[in-house]
């Protein structure tokens, strides 16, 4: 895939805004105006939206959950599969319609979808009503673009960046659990995946900056941090400063924040040193998300995953034996180009072997520009759907089995908010990331409490506070 280094539409004059001074400079401009922000996709996008929120609120906008009330709509998009893209286009239709009656409405698109050159062409030619398009490497330019709102469509999208920005400000969604970027981008180039194209090359943040952020979050009362990277265990390799993910994890643990987790790990460079650190510290959650993608060596090779099933099993068993009560979850793709029944049966076999605590399953979706999109594929969509159904039944039976193991036990739960299951309930997560609905008062929110598990389903647990 080729993108020019910088594609900017229009000849606008660039101004630099000191983000720290944003509120003084621009706040009056948008005071009383409302923003509507919608986020698609992964945790990385969710965290980027916290940066977007900071900018919007610093400019003076306040949030609304009602599209029709908005003066600015920001869609933070995802490109991982076709259905994520379809959802964005569907929503854009509603925004376009709203603009007929609300001429001054600003429509802004950010995130992974706008990093794709053919999508940019589409937006330029068929979606002129979009005012601002900001790429994943250009997010910090969003406030300038809003302030300068040019008459023509403004596009700021770098194809790649070797930059790592520090001192980024966030309006965090939660005061209990925080996301922390430790690395950006991905160099793995799995053949099905668009991420290396939309998020760029792997770049790590310096350890001292991450540790400072964790310390500040602990000082402000946060109970949990999640270290974020497309491939966290490659952390530090690009810096060559003598530290790696195991070093970072250990230093984060020593700060003493009650709960630490990390996503996502690649099985390829998950080291023994990392496993030892996870096992050593009580505040590192015994939870590892370890995407396997397929149970067939033939498919793994075509996916450029760089491990065999035997190697995955060895790693899986090592983590299980060294980390007490660990939960391992995974991602699986069915219907990769020319996946045979035999390949698919091997995926079922590995699920039976690993009995994953949970698995996120997907039908393969060709992404323009990736190597797999050019591979011949004779498998019908109906076959892919049937495989997904069969896989989900199996995966769900193991989720249920793993949840049932907790029945009658008392586990620690970080209570994160009200429960959807009733006003007398709150909900939270075990240290193995299992969702628990708890009978109890809203005062529990923000605390880690002992909960007795009273019922187990495939996707959640019920519990009551243990006295
Ligand atoms: N089609 C289907 N699933 C995909 N994933 C990534 N790219 C694709 C694609 N083109 C899945 C992988 C990855 C998860 C985040 O999304 O399983 O681990
Ligand atoms: Fe995509 Fe593979 Fe990188 Fe994960 S490791 S983001 S699946 S290219």
Your description of this structure?
With 467 residues, this protein is α/β, with parallel strands linked by helices. Helices cover 34% and strands 22% of the residues. A hairpin with a 4-residue loop joins strand 17 and strand 18. The protein is globular and about 60 Å long. It has 13 helices and 20 strands. The protein folds into three domains: 152 residues, Methylthiotransferase, N-terminal domain (Rossmann fold, 3-Layer(aba) Sandwich); 238 residues, pyruvate-formate lyase- activating enzyme (Alpha-Beta Horseshoe), CATH 3.80.30.20; 56 residues, Beta Barrel (OB fold (Dihydrolipoamide Acetyltransferase, E2P)), CATH 2.40.50.140. The chain has a seven-stranded mixed sheet, sandwiched between helices. It has a five-stranded mixed β-barrel with strand order 16-17-18-20-19. A three-stranded parallel sheet has the order 8-11-12, sandwiched between helices. 5'-deoxyadenosine binds next to strand 14.
